[in-house]
Amino acid sequence: MKRICAIFVGCLSSILTSPTGAAEPVDYRRDIQPIWQQHCAKCHGAEEQNGGINFDDRASIFAEADSGKRPVVAGNVVASEVIKRVTSIDENLRMPPEVGPLSELQINTLKNWISQGAAWPQADVSNTQKAGTSSHWSFQPIADPQPPDVQDASWTSSPLDHFVQAKRESAGLEVGQDAEPVVLIRRATYGLTGLPPTPEEVEQFLEAVESPRGLEGAFSDLVDELLARPSYGERWGRHWMDWVRYADTAGDNSDFPIPQAYLYRNYIIDAFNGDVPYDRFLTEQIAGDLLPAESQEQRNRQTIATGYLAMARRFGSLVERYPWHLTIEDTIDNLGRTMLGLTLSCARCHDHKFDPITTRDYYGLYGIFASTRYPFPGIELFQSQRDFVPLIPAEPAVAAMRPYQAESDRLTAELDMLLTACRQRAMEDAARESHASLDEQRKMQDELDAMLIKARRAGEKLADHLKKIPPIPTAYAVQDAEPQDACIQIKGEPARPGAVVPRTFPKILGGQTLNEADANSSSGRLELASWIISPKNPLTARVIVNRVWQRHFGVGIVPSTSDFGLRGQVPTHPELLDWLATEFVRSGWSIKQLNRIIMNSRTYRLSSEDIKENLAHDPRNRYYWKFNRQRLDAESIRDTLLMISGTLDVTPLTEPYPIPPHSQWKYTQHHPFKDDYPSQKRSVYLMTKRLTARPYLQTFDGPDPNVCTSDRNQSVTPLQALYFFNDEFLHEQAGRFAAALDESADDDRIRAKKAFRTILCREPSTKESDFMLKHIAAAREQFEAETLANQQAWSSLVRTLLRLNEFVYVD
C-alpha cells in the first residue's frame, strides 16, 4: 500500500510541476521561498552571501554572481545556474552541499517557476545591504558639531575641552589637577620628538612659564618649537612606518634585501617635517608617479613616495608560480586598515561577514593593483632586481640600457611566455583534476613540472643577464602596467576565475568607477587616491585624527584604530572625533596643526595622578579625567640612552646600507638575508628585516614589519627588567655618562644633581640627593680595588636611575 501511495504522489507531483505539463502557476511565497529558506539561506542569505548570492534578495538572484553566471534567468531553465547546481552529479558542484540534494519535486518546482517567468512579489524585494550596516556610525557623513555648553566653562581652554568636559560632567566625574610644568615639557618633547628635553631646555621652559605669557603661552611656544625640529619628522615618520609595515627586506622565503627602501623611509620623514598636507601625502604614495612634476627632483620624490605600494610583502621562492595575488591582497589589506580603518581583505574569498564590503568591492580594488607593475626585489630562484624605477631622466636611462635592451627584451618575452603558459596549464589542470583518473592526474602534473623547469631556466638566464647591466639610481616604486579589470577569484583561488569586475571603490563609500577613457589608459591609482581623500568619504579624516589622538593619549577615541567596521569599537566621544576631523580638513589636512589643536588643550595638560572615586566608576579613564601614563617605546629608550651618553648621532641616514652588490647575492630559504648594520644613529634609521626581528625590539613591543601595527603594546615582563640589569649596550651607555659626570665637577652633590636632571628631567629632592650620595659612597667602597673605581660607582648610580619607573614611563 505504501508503495502504491508513493507512486501516486510521485506521478501527481510530476504532473503538477512539469515545465511542459498543464501545471498550476508556481507561487513564489508558497512554493519557492520555503526552498530558499530551508536549503539555501544559511550560505546565501542576508548574513552570509557566498558567491555574491543572496536568495533573500531579488536583485541578487537575477544578477551576475561572483562566478560570472546568473543564478536565475527568467524563462530560461537551461541558462539558470541554480538548476545546473541542484541537478549536478558532481559532489564538488552540487548544491546544497551539506544537507543533501533537493527532492525531485523541489527541483521540478524550481524549473516550473523559472519557465513561467520567475515571478517575485514586489513586496518581497529586499535591500541588498546587510541589516544595520548602512546606518553604522563610521559610514555616516562627518558632522560639524559645535562645542557643547558645560557647567564649568572656566576649566576649558579650547573648544576641544568642551567636548571632553561635557562628557565628564554627564558622568559625574571630578577632573584631575593640571600637570606640573616639568612633567609637561617631558611629555611634549617625547611625544613630538621621541627624545627627552635637556636640563637646559627644562630650565628655559620653567623660566618662560614665569613670564607674562604664563603656562599656556609658554607651552604653545614649546609645541611650535618642537614641531619645527627635524626630530619631529623622525618621531612621527616612525609612527607612519608602523602603520604601513615599513621594512628594508621583502619578506619572501629568503627575505631579500631592498637597498633602495631607505629612500621611501626618508620621504616619510621629510614629508612630516615639511607638513605635506595629508591628502597630498596619501595621493603621492598611491599615485605619485602619475602626478605632474615640474622638475626631475619632484618627479623622483613622487616616484619614491609610491614605495608605499612597493612595500607590500613578497611571498614564496619560485618565479614561475609567483603568488602576486597575495602581494596584492597585502596591498589592499594595508590600504584598508591604514587609511580607511576597514578590514578589506576579509572579502577576498567571500563577502565580508560583518562589514558592507563585498567580494566585488575587493576585486574592484584588485584590478587597480593588477594594473600596476610592482618592482621585483629578487627571490631564491631569480637573484636579481627587476622593474625598479629609474631616478634619472628617461633619455639617459634608455641610453644606459640600450646595449642590453634587445637581449633583455628577448629573455623577458621568453620568460613571460613560459609563465603565461604555466599559469594557463595550471588553471586547465585544476579544472580537469576532479574528473581525471589518478594516472591522468600524474601525467598532467609531470607535464606541468616540465613546463615549470623551462620557465625556471629562462628566469635564471634573465637574472644573470640583468646582473651585467651597469647600475643606475633606481627606486623601489611602482609603475602603471597594462590596464585590466580583474576576475573574481572563486574562494580566493587565482586558478578559479569568475566574473570580471570593473575597477571601482567600495559601494558603501561611494562606489565610484573609472570612466572608459581612464579605464583603458591607466591603472586607476590616481582616481583611487581621489576617492580616498574625497570629502564624501567619511573614513579617511576620522581614521587619521583618531591615530594622532591615540599616539598622544595612549588610546584612540575609537580604541580599535584600524577597524571602524561593525566589529570595531565605537567612539567614546563621537562628536569630538567629528569636530577634530572637520578642523583637520579645514586646516588644509595639516598634521602639525592637528598636533597643536590636541596639545594646546587643557585635556592634554592634565596630571596622570589617580582620583580614587573616579577609578571606581571609570577605571580605564574613558572620560579623560586624567592623562594616561605611557611607557616609552623601544626606540625612545634606545635613543635616550645614546643621548644621555653623548654618543647619539643625530644626522639623518641619507645613504643605503652597505648591502653586498647584486652579483654576490646567494640568499635562499635556508640561508636568508640576515645582515645587520648597527650605528649610533636614531633607531628609525636602523635596518628593519621582516623575518628576523631584533630581540631588543621584541622585548619592548616594537612594531611587526609584516602587518599594520595599529598601536604598540605596553607589556610588563621580566625580560624588560633583566635588560636594565644586564644588557651590554645599556651598561656601555651608562659607563660613558658616568665618565662625563666624573669629569664635570668635583662636588658629588653637583654630579648627582646633574645625573638626576639629565635622566629624570627634574630637580631631586633633598631626600633623593642624600640617597644618591649614600649610594655613591657605598659603591666606592665596593669598587675600591678596581681601576676607575669612581666611574664604576657613578655608573652604578646611573643604572639605578635608569631602572626607575619614572624614567621608563611618561606621566
Provide structural commentary.
The protein has 811 residues and is mainly α. It contains 32 helices and eight strands. Strands 1-4 form a two-stranded antiparallel ribbon. Strand 5 and strand 6 (497-501) form a beta hairpin. Helix 25 (634-645) packs parallel to helix 28. The chain is globular.
List keywords for this structure.
globular, 32 helices, disordered N terminus, 811 residues, mainly alpha
Summarize the structure.
This protein has 811 residues and is an all-alpha fold.
**Helix content bin:** 40-55%
Q: Radius of gyration over alpha carbons?
A: 32 Å
The unreliable regions are 1-21, 125-132
The major beta sheet can be summarized as:
2 strands, antiparallel
The end-to-end span amounts to 88 Å
List the helices and strands and how they pair.
Blueprint: H1 2-17, H2 28-40, H3 58-62, H4 81-87, H5 104-115, H6 159-170, H7 181-193, H8 199-209, H9 214-227, H10 230-243, H11 261-273, H12 278-287, H13 296-305, H14 307-310, H15 324-340, H16 359-370, E1 372-373, E2 389-390, H17 394-433, H18 438-466, E3 474-475, E4 479-480, E5 486-489, E6 497-501, H19 516-521, H20 525-532, H21 540-553, H22 574-586, H23 591-599, H24 612-617, E7 630-631, H25 634-645, H26 695-699, H27 718-726, H28 728-744, H29 748-760, H30 766-782, H31 789-802, H32 805-808, E8 809-810
Helix pairs in contact: 1-5, 2-5, 7-8, 7-9, 10-11, 12-13, 12-20, 15-16, 17-18, 21-22, 21-23, 25-28, 28-29, 28-31, 29-30, 30-31
